[in-house]
Structures are given as C-alpha cells and as structure tokens.
UniProtKB/TrEMBL annotation, chain A:
Keywords: Cell cycle, Cell division, Coiled coil, GTP-binding, Nucleotide-binding
GO molecular function, one term: GTP binding
Gene3D superfamilies: P-loop containing nucleotide triphosphate hydrolases (3.40.50.300)
Organism, as annotated: Coemansia interrupta
Domain Septin-type G per the UniProt entry, residue ranges: 34-307
Protein name (database record): Septin spn4
UniProt xrefs under Pfam families: Septin
Automatic annotation (TrEMBL), chain B:
Residue ranges crossing the lipid bilayer per the database entry: none
GO CC entries: cell cortex; septin cytoskeleton
Keyword Nucleotide-binding: yes
Region of interest (Disordered), residue spans: 1-27, 305-330
Organism: Coemansia interrupta
This protein's name: Cell division control protein 11
GO biological process terms, semicolon-separated: cell division
Domain called Septin-type G: residue spans: 31-304
InterPro entries: G_SEPTIN_dom, P-loop_NTPase, Septin
Compositionally biased intervals (Polar residues): 1-16
Family membership noted in the UniProt record: Belongs to the TRAFAC class TrmE-Era-EngA-EngB-Septin-like GTPase superfamily. Septin GTPase family.
Amino acid sequence: MSASDANSAKTQTTSGGIGIANLPNQLHKIVTKKGTNLSIMVVGESGTGKTTFINTLLTTELIEPLEDAARRKKQMDKTVDINIHKAELEEKMFNVKLNVVDTPGFGDYVNNNDCWLPVVDFIENQYEQYLRQEQQPVRKGVVDMRVHACLYFIRPNGHTLKPLDVRAMKAIGARVNLIPVIAKADTLSPTALRQFKKRVMDVIDAQSIRIYQPPVESDDEAMTVRNKDIISAVPFAIIGSTQEVKTADGRHVKGRQYPWGVAEVENDQHCDFKKLRSLLIRTHMLDLISTTEEVHYDKYRTTQMKTRKFGEPKPRKVDNKKFREEEEMLRKRFTEKVKLEENRFRQWEQKLIAERDRLNKDLEQEHNLVKQLESEIEAISNVNSPNGKFFRK
Amino acid sequence: MAPSAPSINSTMSSRMATPRPSSYRYKSEKRGMTYNIMLVGQSGLGRRTFLNTLCEREVISPPEAPNPETANIADPMRFDTYEVNIEEEGTRISMTVIDTPGFGDGLDNTECFKQLQDYIEAQFDEVLVEESRIKRNRRYRDHRIHTLIYFITPTGHSLRELDIELIKRLGEYVNIIPVIGRADSLTVEELATFKQNVMRDIDYYKLPLYNFCWDESDSEALKENREIMDYTPFSVVTCDEVLDNEFGAVRVRRYPWGSIEIDDEGQCDFALLRYILLNSHIADLINYTEDVLYENYRTKKLEVGGFGEGEGEGEEENDEDDEVLGAKNE
C-alpha cells in the first residue's frame, strides 16, 4: 500500500458486515481462556481488620489468624514483614490468579519512622522484576506481581489522619493505585463518620496525596450514576465479617452481632463494603489493572530507562538504617572474635616454641652425654689394647 | 466471662472509705478529698468523652477542627489540667484530671515515656521538698498522681509495644488501671478473647499494674477485689446523648443498628469503673500511692542523695543535710 493511500484511508461501514464485529467475541474467548493476574495489597496497623476484610471479600478464609506464639514474637520485633498469600479463583470458567500482600508490623511499634519503606520497596521491586523480565531474550512465562491496588486502612480516631498516615499514603500513592479505607467503621456514629470522611478528604487534598480516581463517565447512564455514587463514598467505611448472624427481624446476613444490634456488612446504610467490592472486582478491576500498567509502571520504567542502559542491573540503594547498624555490630563482633582467636593461637604458638626449645636443649644435653661416653669408650679401648685389638673377657 | 455482676455494687456500698485518724486527712475531708487522675492514651480512644461521661457534664470541650495543612506534623505531647468538684454519696472530692493529648500520636514516640515519668516524679519531688521544709505550708495542695487510667486500643488481638512499654516504665511510680477505649467496636466474644489475651500478655511480660488485692488484711474485701480483677481491662463506651424514656434519662450511644446504654453493666464496664474510681477504691488508691509508691520513691531518692536540689528555703546541698533528714524521718 502506498503512503498516499494510507493517509487518505476512509472509514467505511460495511452494510452486510464482513465480520469485523466478531473480533470482541474472539477476544473474549482468548481472555477467558488466559485468565488474569490480580494483586491487592493491604496496609495498616494491626487490628484494623485487614485479614477479616480480605476473607469477607473473597468469601473464603484466605488468610488465617496468627497463632499465639507467632503473635508474641511479632509484638516486639520492630520490623515490618511482607507476606504474600496466593489463591486461584474460578468463577464461570474464568480464572483469576490472586495475590494478596499483607504487611504485619506496619505502624505497630513505639518508633514507626520509615515503616512504609518496606512497602514502597516491595512495590518498586515488582516493577523492577517485570522490567527485567521484559528485557530478557525469552519472554515467555513472565511472572507479574505488580500491585494493582493498595488498600490503606485508616484507624477511625474520629479526628483526622495521623502524621504516619499522611507520610505513608503520600509515599505509596505516588507509586500505586491507593484506595483509602476507614477500618472498623462500626465504631463511629453516622454523624461522626461523615465528619471524619470529610476531614480525611480535606487532608488528602491539602497534602497532595494521590489516590485512585476511577473513571466516572461511561456510555451507560446507569453506570455513570453508580460510578458517581462510588466515588462520593471515598474513603470507604468498612465493616468486615465472615460470620452469618440473625438480625432482629429474622434475616440471616453476614454481620457483627452486638448486644444492642447487628451491624450488617452488605447493608449500604451501615457501611460501604458493597461499593468497595464493586470497585475492586465487579466494575473497575480492569481499570485498576490498566492504570497500573499504563500509568504507574510506565512512570517507573521511564525514570529507570532515562538513567540506566538497557539490561543494566539496578544500582543498590543505601541500606536500611537499622540493617546498617546491625551490620556494623556484627562486623565489630566478628573482628573481636577474630582478634581473640589470633591471640589464643599466638600464645599457643609461643608455648609450643618454648616447649620445642626446651626439648631441643634436653636433646643437646643427651647428645653431649652420648658424645662424652663415646669418647670415654674410645679412650678406654685405646688404653686397653694399644695394637687396636679388643681384649675379651 | 459474662459481664454481669450486679451483686458487687450492693456489697461494695458498705465499704465506704473512712478517713484514717490523722489530722491531715480530717482537715482535707472538709475541703474535699484531694484526688488526682491522669488520662493517658492515643488520640481517638475516648479520653475526653470518658471524663465528660464520668463527671456527667462537659469538662473538656471538643477540640477545634484540625488544620489539614499541618496534618503531617505531629503535635508534641502536652499536659492539660482540669479541676472538677464531685460529690459522690456524701463525700466531696476535689478532683484534678490531667489529660495528655499527643501521647503516641507521632511517628517516633520514644520520648513520651520519659516525659510522663518526669512529670510524675516532679510531683513526688514537690512533696519531698514540702515535707522537709522547716516551716510547712498549711494550705499545701498535693499533686501526686493517684491513678493513671491507660486507654488500650481495641485491636482485638493483644497488647502492642506502646502499651507494654508504658506500663513497664510507669508502673512503679503510679497506680495504672488499664481500660479498653471504644469497646463498642468489639463483639461479646471478641471482647472476652481480647481481655484474656491482654491479661496473658500482662502475666508474660510481668507488667506492674495496680493490684487491687494489695491489702491482704481484710479477707472479705479481698474476695471482692479478686472478682473485680477478673474484669480488667475495663471496657469503656462513652456517651453521645441522653435519651428520655419511661425510666427517666438514659445515657446512650446510637448507631443505625441499635443503641448502647452506657450505664448498663451488661453492655460495658463503665459503671463498674466509675464506682471503683470514685467510690469504693478511692481511698485504697490514694493510700497505696502515699504509703507505698511515694515511700519507695523517697527511699530511692534519699539513698542516692540526689535530694536537695529543689528550691527549699535556705537548704544547702550537702551530705550533712541528707543525714539529718534521714534521721528525722525515721
């Protein structure tokens, strides 16, 4: 086809149809067979209901609660862990490989400075892994663990965001789709909840924290209305429960049973769980995945490509301060131990040398004695037989 | 354990505090018992509303709206003092409450413990100086902290490092009573499990809480005290509004799915805690602070010989003085 033809291509709608409209169906079949990958991260202090939320969302106990011994170990160890839980979900022949990333230890200690760094590092490492795999000669079987959505659980203290929340959300929101969530919302009265939501959004605006903005406009009018509804509920107030309880009017629902009533999970008057579930899975899952790939990953890739040549490994960042201190301590202990051992060996060597000298002296003495005896014998034998013959008794 | 113990209240009313036969105490009875409480806990756990509910009126007004521009900077911890006069079953109590907003709200909270400890020790030092003045002040007001109410975050799991560190460091200077703030976020089973886990942590780390059973002489009181200890940590829910129904005014907290009655012992331990703080154990708490905690501090301080640095009237800082003091106070 010549260049002029390409430039003057006209759009033609064929009346009978040649079958181009069948492409989406083919695509549908391919996508259905391939399945997809979804990674969700949950970040927040312990006891905010992250585990319960995930289990409620997936209607299955993906993450098990910690055993006593494990919990006690974690209480004072002052580190943030990254735990990955994998699951394969199947619904109507469509497969989803789900990764849930949990961050126990975040914000749980007396000193929480920089506790978001392991989280941020993890997110960037996934981008890095994907980047490297893309650059390999053989690109089949790429493992894609890039985080598509990060839920940040805010503890409802009724006032506003804590400085820890502000700093952590700023760092995380710049790199991944950040969705703020108000945890354990059944502890705030409706007016307090409204006020808290407004204050949180004020802080997010004032501090320029970037959160996930789902697209509002769509071709379907009903969709647009629903989207607007969802967006107005940010940050989402969540109640999580995997238990079925009976309400006062006899219904069986998922909820939390208090002596004074039942807080229902799927009741829009009580909490925003349904809206968040819709956002994460039913309506906006594709958008989450594509914004991750097209916006966040692309940003990372661009910045890395500008400074690194193709195929070059990433320069190692300055290590975490805590690790550096530990490293220093270990090194010091090691050199001390080595010095101790060297001293011990030196002393041992000296002892051995002294011993050897002593033994050598003894040996010399013996030698001298032997020589003496020998000369005596010669002297005697010369005296006794002047002609050299022995006189045998 | 089911949270319902109506029997405790009736037997406790017979154990009202009777003042010891010391002139200091009788005189202060007229003025009202001096009682100092400190409230410690992270923001959002209900310290302010707890005090308002305790005194049945608004002692601390709601804080002004926070400035979003400075939300990334933590406010340093401060000590706010409030004076409240309460009349509880005929006894007048002149209560001073010290609130500590800013505790545990920053990124790095290691300094908070030292600040609290310094504050409490400063009150002890003041008394130490006052005791050994040549001419004592008759109208001297005792500011020693008699009770520290510590608000635990209702995570539903167990204690956190902040809780453990605080009780460990301050338990030898002040009576600590642990309280679960915002306990309405836990269901009945979750609350029971949480209380169990917290008490197990307290045993494991050997945390020095106020021991209700410290006075073993009165066996009947000891039995009651053991029952009370089963309720620690006390679950607290605070009042939003007062409703009028056929039984009179009821203090409640309302949700779309129901209302909590604050004073109902089946729903939370607030009523029990109030009774302990202002009624049955107020004398015990004050006595323990004066007879044990303060005396321990005093002994330690005088042994080290650090005493004498306060602004006493013409007191010289030398060893001779300490020996004299030691002899006089024996």
